[in-house]
Design brief:
The complex is a heterodimer of chains A (592) and B (302). With 592 residues, chain A is of the alpha/beta class. Chain A has 4 domains: 176 residues, 3-Layer(aba) Sandwich (Pyruvate-ferredoxin Oxidoreductase, domain 3); 179 residues, 3-Layer(aba) Sandwich (Rossmann fold); 74 residues, no CATH class; 116 residues, Rossmann fold, CATH 3.40.50. Chain A is 36% helix and 20% strand. The longest helix of chain A has 21 residues. The two termini of chain A are 22 Å apart. Chain B contains 9 helices and 8 strands. Chain B has an 8-stranded mixed sheet with strand order 2-1-3-4-6-5-8-7, with helices on both faces. Chain B starts with 34 loop residues before the first helix and ends with a helix. Chain B has 302 residues and is an alpha/beta fold. Classes of the chains: A alpha/beta (592), B alpha/beta (302). The structure holds thiamine diphosphate, iron/sulfur cluster and magnesium ion. The site of magnesium ion has 9 residues of chain B, from helix 3.
């Protein structure tokens, strides 16, 4: 389905090391500078050379939330791409390829095969020429002026000097001219949006959101697909005065973050499931010591080392079960890139107020996708509320760090202040921090402290917006998703509406605290409920059931490593409407 | 440590005594436990250096020895087993004005926390690390530790340990620690002097202390050490000479050396970070970005 009046998807396929990112970047820049919306997904592998990589770039004059279903231009950088993807091209699409070394396959009706005589047209022997030439040709097919491309190339290669710019411009020009002479261009001209847009990834949005929230300490151990947060933080550390550390392992990361947080820094870290597994003991220690800190788990397909470069929503139970014992913590799954950003200051305010850890659950799709964003939608100066934090002054007799207050929240004094000297402890302790094990392990004191900490969370849910139903009230089916599936479900709902199928959508962002009552209330009015998740066992469904007692009518699940695209969900809804099935698992076209 | 807290006001500073560093509760260590001597030496050294309780952050892991922060009057963090150095690094970077003193056991520091030990030394974080090495797991009622000697019989090695021990001194030197010393809990005076030097040293300082467990390690008792210990300073040891330091640290027979094995001046982690140049510690800074910072971020995205 086309969302706006201009909705166009370019895909570039090749192997690692063939330089797919560069043409992707160049084209992406052109579109966002024109004010067009962008949604990209890179289907890649954990490999530095070889393998198969496939980059989607969807461009639209209206906001888009998924990389979509269809392809308009396919750029083949190797034979493999031609062989795998040609049969998926729709009528009216183009397939660009280097005719020197790629054999065309059987194209379907209306698919334009566009061979590029790369060696003949090239002024250089650079093996990346075919990429630049394909970009030149694509620019023509899209009806862009060559000058627009030239500007973008100049910007892209600025740092490498004039010679590199000239070489790329001339190769692109050759591709452009060849295309003008030989191929029929798109009949629509590329529109221009109201103002230039910026580009970010979900990881960058998380990092920026943290920075805007006032993060002063960031630590990490590299792990895909979370490493983008580290890279952004490292790049901006000195501009923003953030201490950024690469640590020996994730156990060290989490504990270092807690140490920094205890001295008053807003502190955070990001990893994927494997790294988060190593952090879990520390998460509970932050809860016990009542130190606010934020941990991000960017999910990849698991278990174990799993599929490092593929997406999944399989860590929900891991984060729910992270660390032994009963304790209070927030768990939140942002739904869109801008939500990634906004979630960070919101969560830091909550973790400061309730003096506990917060966990953000993202995934590869959301974190590593690159998306356009209007800069004025990014609030770099969000409200900051540090809760009951004592940062100044001296003395007050008998300060007790864990004072048993009515709200359960005990004013927190930072180390270094005179008169507030205290110890924080991972052992159970009394109001004055004294370990219970230092005397006889007093059951009344233990109960008091468990209840003190738990009391904080009696009201926490009031600080969190309940989920809202999107779409018609009298829908045939209510789709429930959580976290990153927001965008694709949203588009599927629109497609179904166009086809006359009324579906609505309940997107869940907050996992803990969970708005069970609000959800029960909403679902009580639904005709049929289907849960959409990117996991095999339906982790979210099982969690929702445990919290609400609700059962549902069916499921749409995917666990092959690739994200849902809209028609997967459309097909699932239709299958559920057609007959009673328990679980629909969409077929993943051989796109990667 | 190079940094000090500025005086908070102009009240005359009354000199403190070791007793002022007594914590909320009395230690629940077994009578005769070596850790008493270590606590005593630490209290004395802080008093003698003129430190104030609120300027100090003691950080420990879990173990009998790691209970020390509760018995010491200063800010303290009683963290997870093995994680004290990581937490302490974060805390020191978060507030570089604090004197961060890490206390713990051999199991805590060299076993479960071994990875942090290596890397904290390498990074030369400005911390003082006090290890109460009793060559046993005390709190868990007597199993071998990474420093237990070969052949030692414990509950987990009823037929004698067949593993070779780790040498904390040579390890620390090899890992890049810039102050490496060994003390003995039975010689509080000597230990106090070592601690004072370590606290004043700028960079990562380790004091590995023989601190006998009277309950579970009958091999390495007070008497065992008293008979064997010789002080490096009595023999004119050159603390710049890491090779001789290692040779001497490896002796564990009739002669066992205590004292300062090795010291060098090197940039600290915090000192190498421009982010810490502003006087105000990170943890006390006002949060939020300014217009200029924001502009630079957004420009990069366009
Ligand atoms: C993750 C974890 N594993 C195991 C333990 C149990 N434990 C507590 S203290 C300790 C060993 C303590 O030995 P050491 O650090 O040498 O201290 P000591 O009691 O001898 O002073 C162990 C294994 C724990 N608390 N946490
Ligand atoms: S068990 Fe050993 S180490 Fe623990 S307190 Fe007793 S003597 Fe000290
Ligand atoms: Mg021990």
């Amino acid at each position: 389905m086309a969302v706006g009046s201009f909705d166009f998807t370019i895909a570039i396929g090749g192997e690692a090391g063939q330089g797919i990112a560069t043409p992707g970047d160049i084209l992406a820049r052109i579109f966002v500078r024109r004010g067009l919306h962008l949604n990209t997904y890179n289907a890649y592998q954990s490999i530095i050379r070889g393998g198969h990589i496939f980059l989607y770039l969807r461009v639209c004059d209206e906001e888009i939330y998924t990389h979509g279903d269809k392809l308009d231009i396919l750029m083949c950088l190797n034979q493999d791409t031609m062989d795998r993807h040609l049969q998926l091209m729709r009528p009216g699409s183009w397939v660009l390829y280097n005719e020197d070394n790629i054999k065309p396959g059987e194209a379907g009706d209306g698919v334009q095969l566009c061979p590029l005589p790369v060696t003949k047209l090239s002024v250089t022997r650079n093996r990346l020429s075919q990429n630049t030439m394909a970009v030149g040709s694509a620019a023509h097919l899209l009806g862009l002026d060559f000058q627009v491309l030239e500007e973008s190339l100049t910007l892209r290669f600025q740092r490498q000097g004039q010679a590199v710019i000239d070489e790329n411009v001339s190769v692109a020009r050759a591709g452009y001219d060849h295309s003008v002479a030989n191929f029929e261009a798109f009949d629509q001209t590329v529109p221009t949006g109201p103002k230039p847009l910026a580009v970010w990834s979900g990881n960058e949005a998380l990092a920026m959101g943290g920075a805007a929230a006032g993060v002063k300490f960031y630590a990490a151990y590299p792990m895909s697909p979370a490493t983008g947060v580290l890279h952004w933080m490292a790049q901006n550390a000195r501009n923003l005065g953030i201490m950024v550390r690469q640590v020996e392992d994730e156990i060290g990361v989490a504990n270092m973050v807690i140490g920094a947080a205890h001295t008053g820094c807003r502190a955070m870290c990001a990893t994927s499931g494997g790294g988060f597994a190593l952090m879990t003991e520390a998460v509970g220690s932050a809860a016990m010591m009542e130190i606010p800190a934020v941990f991000i788990d960017v999910m990849r397909a698991g278990p174990s080392t799993g599929v490092p470069t593929k997406t999944e929503q399989g860590d929900l139970w891991q984060v729910l079960g992270a660390s032994q014992g009963d304790f209070e913590r927030f768990i939140v799954a942002p739904t869109t890139p801008v939500d990634c950003f906004n979630t960070m200051p919101e969560l830091f305010n909550l973790t400061d107020k309730y003096q506990c850890p917060g966990i953000v659950v993202s995934d590869l799709l959301l974190s590593e996708g690159r998306f356009s964003i209007a800069p004025d939608l990014i609030d770099m100066h969000p409200h900051i509320d540090r809760g009951e934090l004592i940062t100044k002054g001296s003395s007050t007799d008998g300060y007790m760090r864990y004072k048993d207050t009515e709200t359960g929240i005990s004013p927190r004094a930072l180390p270094g202040l005179e008169g507030y000297v205290h110890v924080v402890a991972t052992d159970e302790h009394d109001e004055n921090s004294q370990l219970l094990s230092d005397e006889f392990t007093n059951p009344h004191k233990r109960r008091k402290m468990v209840e003190k900490r738990a009391r904080k969370f009696k009201v926490a849910i009031e600080d969190i917006k309940p989920p809202e139903l999107e779409g018609p009230a009298d829908a045939e089916i209510t789709l429930i998703g959580w976290g990153s599936t927001y965008g694709v479900i949203r588009e599927a709902v629109e497609i179904l509406a166009q086809q006359g199928v009324a579906v609505n959508h309940l997107a869940i962002k907050w996992i803990v605290p969970f708005h069970g009552e609000a959800i029960t209330e909403i679902l009580s009015k639904s005709k049929r409920v289907v849960v959409v998740e990117n996991s095999f066992s339906g982790q979210f469904y099982r969690y929702m059931r445990s919290e609400t007692g609700l059962s549902v009518d069916g499921h749409i699940r995917k666990y092959d490593g690739e994200p849902f695209i809209p028609h997967h969900i459309v097909d699932g809804v239709k299958a559920h409407l057609a007959e009673k099935i328990e679980c629909f698992v969409p077929y993943q076209e051989a796109i990667t | 440590m190079a940094t000090t807290m500025p005086a908070t006001d102009d009240k005359p500073v009354i000199p403190l005594t070791a007793r002022d560093f007594k914590g909320l509760v009395d230690p629940d260590w077994c009578a005769g436990c070596g850790d008493f001597g270590v606590l005593n030496a630490l209290q004395r050294s802080c008093a003698e250096l003129g430190l104030r309780p609120h300027e100090i952050l003691t950080v420990s892991g879990i173990g009998c020895s790691s209970n020390l922060p509760g018995y010491f009057n200063s800010y303290g963090m009683h963290t997870l087993h093995g994680r004290s150095l990581a937490v302490a690094t974060g805390a020191k970077l978060g507030n570089h004005r604090l004197h961060v003193i890490v206390t713990g056991g051999d199991g805590d520091g060299y076993g479960i926390g071994g990875n942090h030990f290596t890397h904290t030394a390498r990074r030369n974080v400005d911390l003082t690390y006090v290890v109460m090495n009793n060559q046993i797991y005390g709190l868990t009622t007597g199993q071998i530790s990474p420093t237990s000697t070969m052949g030692m019989k414990t509950k987990s090695t009823p037929f004698g340990s067949v593993e070779a021990p780790l040498n904390p001194i040579t390890s620390a030197i090899m890992n890049g620690a810039t102050f490496v010393a060994r003390g003995f809990s039975g010689d509080v005076r000597h230990l106090t002097e070592l601690m004072k030097q370590a606290i004043q040293h700028s960079g990562f300082s380790l004091i590995d202390i023989f601190s006998p467990c009277v309950t579970f390690n009958h091999d390495n008792s007070n008497a065992f050490f008293k008979e064997r210990i010789k002080k490096l300073e009595d023999e004119g040891h050159d603390t710049n000479d890491w090779k001789t330091a290692c040779e001497k640290a490896m002796l564990f027979g009739d002669t066992i050396y205590t004292g300062l094995f090795f010291q060098k001046q090197a940039p600290t982690l915090g000192g190498s970070e421009p982010v810490l140049e502003p006087d105000e510690p990170l943890g006390l800074q006002t949060l939020g970005l300014d217009k200029e910072q924001t502009k630079r971020i957004i420009e990069r995205m366009m």
